[in-house]
Amino acid sequence: MSIVALLIIILIGAGAPLIAPQDPRDVQLPNRLKPPGFVDDEGRIFYLGADPLGRDILSRLIYGARVSLVVGLSAVSISGFLGLSLGLLSGFYGGRLDDIIMRLADVQLAFPDILLYIAVLAVLGAGLDKVILVLGISGWVIFARVIRSEVLLIREQEFVMAARSIGSSDLPLILRHILPNVVPVFIVIASFAVANNIIAEASLSFLGLGVPPSIPTWGTMLAESREYLRDAWWPVTFPGLVIMLTVFSINILGDWLRDYLDPRSYK
Prior knowledge:
By secondary structure, the protein is mainly α. It is 70% helix and 1% strand. β1 (38-39) and β2 form a beta hairpin.
């Protein structure tokens, strides 16, 4: 079911211009905070109600899915590539190179993620590309540390030693024998990292440090509606539920991938 829910969210986000019933940025102050199911004078139905500026919540949720998925997947692509490359090099060569990479990882882990995001974005400014860049560069540590631990085990296996004994050089040894064996672990880490990036983007948008307010995002919707929670529950509840459903679906998928790709999990 989690895969089905996630596929639906992806399809909705990809087809937002065709699916959204209204323009998500269309301000209609006479319709502000109207409840779910409200029909305005022009016959437009607000299926999930209107936000404090009278904008259709359903349309904003649909467009917000695009931002969350783009940020989650793009940031993981950057952090995954960096972490995988550094983890392979650190675990395979060891020595001083391993010490340098792991000390850099320790330094970054010394800073709470959210504080690091806020500090960097406060300097760079808000923007979708900047959010992706910050999340991507700062997320390499978990990939590198886990991949390194796997490589340390794999490089001592007999098939690696046999390949080395027949004259295989370092690069073919890494690409042909070690990399395929760490790909399952990499996929599992990436699935959880996507969920973490979606939460991070929503948190940054909630704080006003994410994408510009003109772009509909789930975090921005929460920030703009939190002051009206006592008067209208729907502008806050629906974005929160969508974030929860998306992250929950991705985490369930990650658990399934971990069990499916790790033969040691079978009894």
